[in-house]
Amino acid sequence: MPRNLDLTALRSFVAVAETGGVTKAAGFLHLTQSAVSMQLKRLEEGLGISLLDRSARSVSLTTAGEQLLSYARRMLDLNDEVFARMTHQAYEGEVVLGVPHDIVYPAIPRVLQQFNSDYPRVKVQLISSFTRSLKDSFARGACDLILTTEDTVDPGGQTLCEIPLVWIGAPNGSAWKQRPLKLAFEHDCLFRGSVQRALDAQEVPWEMAVEAESTRTIEAGVSADLAVTAILDGMAPPYIEKIAHNGALPDLPSKKVNLYVSETGGGQVLKDLEKLVRAAYRGG
């Protein structure tokens, strides 16, 4: 009599194999560690074989596990393709997208609008934070897809575009003319060091006048003409503006907008969200 494999258990098995452990796999799948462990146990009992070698500190596959992994990937890909072709509305669940504060607008609202039209029953949890924090969350399996703004790109990531940093101040403001130049930055902002180095290279004196954990607080200080800051070109909200300094301030470097996508879970849903994100930033 034919017997059926549990696709949910297979998905957990593939996740563990690709991430190297139950903890990270659970994060990617948005499940508890105990749930993933139970699915693996049920899969091994159903097949009557051991799939994982648990004798070492890190999880590795047995010979049988290696063979099953090849089949499991193909089965899951076919399963996801069927759902994608037959009906997008059959998808339910959640996708976690992480984006730095400074590149949410204008691209991400368009991405979310289109994705919601394609997958109305899939919830997108948008996390807006600093690049360092987003990369930590991604490493733990807490995000399915993240964008970052960096000088370089790590293995597994891909650069979508490069955007120059520009000086930003209050409309018709004069803070940029003062010396020492008053700066406003979040504590964890990666742009902060680049700006300071550019000023030092041109021997422009500066001081930190506004520091905060919140982007909105920084923007409030800048819009009040208390200080200036630097953001990626084209990303300024309407109440602050690009400074036409005519060379009085140094040119600033460009930053890479990088994309990192989980290799585990998500299926066609995550692939389609990835396509939308790529198009939004490469097109912009």
> What is the chain-wise order of helices and strands?
HHHEEHEHEHEEEHEHEEEH
Average pLDDT score: 90
Helices and strands: which structural class?
Answer: alpha/beta
Range of helix content: 40-55%
Q: How many beta strands in the DSSP annotation?
A: 11
| CATH fold group of the largest domain | D-Maltodextrin-Binding Protein, domain 2
> What fraction of the residues are assigned to beta strands by DSSP?
15-25%
Which segments are poorly predicted (pLDDT under 50) over 5 or more consecutive residues?
none
Determine the N-to-C terminus distance.
56 Å
At the first level of CATH, the class of the largest domain is Alpha Beta
Question: Which structural traits does this protein have?
Answer:
elongated; 42% helix; 3 domains; seven-stranded mixed β-sheet; D-Maltodextrin-Binding Protein, domain 2; two-stranded antiparallel sheet; alpha/beta; 284 residues; Arc Repressor Mutant, subunit A
Topology, pairings included?
Blueprint: H1 7-19, H2 22-29, H3 33-47, E1 52-53, E2 60-61, H4 63-86, E3 93-100, H5 107-118, E4 122-129, H6 131-139, E5 145-150, E6 157-169, E7 181-186, H7 191-201, E8 206-212, H8 215-223, E9 229-232, E10 241-242, E11 254-261, H9 267-283
Parallel strand pairs: 3-4, 3-5, 7-8
Antiparallel strand pairs: 1-2, 5-11, 6-9, 6-10, 6-11
Helix pairs in contact: 1-2, 1-3, 1-4, 2-3, 5-9
Describe this protein's structure.
The chain is of the alpha/beta class and about 280 residues long. The chain has three domains: about 80 residues, Arc Repressor Mutant, subunit A; about 90 residues, 3-Layer(aba) Sandwich (D-Maltodextrin-Binding Protein, domain 2), CATH 3.40.190.10; about 90 residues, Periplasmic binding protein-like II (D-Maltodextrin-Binding Protein, domain 2, 3-Layer(aba) Sandwich), CATH 3.40.190.10. It is about 40% helix and about 25% strand. It contains nine helices and eleven strands. Strands 3, 4, 5, 6, 9, 10 and 11 form a seven-stranded mixed sheet that branches. Strands 1-2 form a two-stranded antiparallel sheet. A two-stranded parallel ribbon has the order 7-8. It is elongated, with a radius of gyration of 23 Å.
